Amino acid sequence: MNCTNCQTQLNPGSSFCANCGTPVQAAAPAAPAAPAQPVVTPGAPYAPRPVASTNGLAIASLVVSIAAGLVSCGTLSFIGAILGHVALNQIKTSRQGGRGLAIGGIVTGWVITGIWVIVIAILIAAGAASNYGY
Questions:
Q1: Which of 14, 35, 58, 64 has the fewest CB atoms within 10 Å, measured from its CB?
Q2: CB atoms < 10 A from the CB of 55, how many?
């Protein structure tokens, strides 16, 4: 048997090579070869997640809620809130991005609609309380 490092002939029973000092590796008894098993490794724990696309209805929800608040004085802001609810449902089932946009559209739409309802109620109450000779 030869040294694995310097290829010098080794003395039988020696633990180290006399020439270079490399430890002698004992020959392992031959074991029956087991069939190779496929190695299944789950995804790396810190692997980057694939970038999900942003849900279009979530974007539309926020845009419509804000635009309706500015353009139509809030009368159509409920449409943005409804779009936000539909977008949240789609995001849950398709695992798309845009959950924050959808929630922002819902909150903005319902808050502006609520303010509009309060303003109308105040105007009606003020009109009913006025005495203009009717």
A1: 35
A2: 22
Q: Is 125 helix (H, G, I), strand (E, B) or coil?
A: helix
pLDDT in tens, 79-103: 999 999 999 999 999 888 999 999 9
Length of the chain: 134
Among 110, 119, 118, smallest CA distance to 77 is for 110
Amino acid letter for position 42: P
The full set of domain ranges for the chain reads: 56-129
How far, rounded to the nearest angstrom, does the alpha carbon of residue 118 sit from its chain's CA centroid?
38
Please give the angle made by the CA atoms of 115, 120 and 102, to the nearest 5 degrees. 30
CA distance 104 to 71: 18
Sign of the alpha-carbon dihedral angle for 101, 102, 104, 109? positive
Residue at 128: amino acid letter: A
